[in-house]
Amino acid sequence: MALSFEELDVGRRMTTPSRTITEADVVNFAGVSGDFNTLHTSETEMKSSEFGERIAHGALVFSAMTGLTRRIADDRAEVVAFYGVDRLRFTAPVFFGDTVHVELELLEKERRDHPTATGVVRYEAEVLNQREDVVLSCELLSLVR
């Protein structure tokens, strides 16, 4: 069972399970988003780039992050809604076959007068690859009961 607003402690840290970003993920995301940029879709052009190979969409990595955080829902707040994201940065490329996980820290919680929520919680979130390189960082905000 998810934790209530009152049960959440600032400083609480959590780590998600991991998942591998596959070529199928990138192809499907390109189709859904309409982003067929050669960074993601052209093996030939990317061989001569600074990356040396295709990379995953930053927005795909962000989406994977949100899914991974739901896999630890029992350790998080009882979320009413995703409230926003601040300070989003894509700090390193994610290559096909990279395995990522998320590390979260509860930075603050603020009571709000809202019909379905008790307050807003802010998490520092970092997505790390299998080499422990931070590939994405941001602050996630959620409305919680």
Write the layout of secondary structure elements.
Blueprint: E1 13-15, E2 19-20, H1 23-33, H2 38-41, H3 43-47, H4 58-70, E3 79-90, E4 99-111, E5 119-128, E6 134-144
Question: What attributes does this structure have?
Answer:
145 residues, alpha+beta, six-stranded antiparallel β-sheet, 4 helices, 23% helix, 35% strand
Mind explaining what this structure looks like?
It is a single chain. By secondary structure, the protein is of the alpha+beta class. The chain is 23% helix and 35% strand. It has helices spanning 23-33, 38-41, 43-47, 58-70, and strands at residues 13-15, 19-20, 79-90, 99-111, 119-128, 134-144. Strands 1, 2, 3, 4, 5 and 6 form a six-stranded antiparallel β-sheet that branches. β4 (99-111) and β5 (119-128) form a beta hairpin. It is elongated. The model has no long low-confidence stretch (mean pLDDT 93).
- SSE ordering: EEHHHHEEEE
Helix fraction by DSSP (H/I, runs of at least 4): 10-25%
How far do the termini sit from each other? Answer: 13 Å
What's the gyration radius in Å? 17 Å
**What is the makeup of the main sheet?**
6 strands, antiparallel
Class from helix and strand fractions: alpha+beta
Can you summarize this structure?
This protein has 145 residues and is α+β, with helices and mostly antiparallel strands. It has helices at 23-33, 38-41, 43-47, 58-70; strands spanning 13-15, 19-20, 79-90, 99-111, 119-128, 134-144. It is 23% helix and 35% strand.
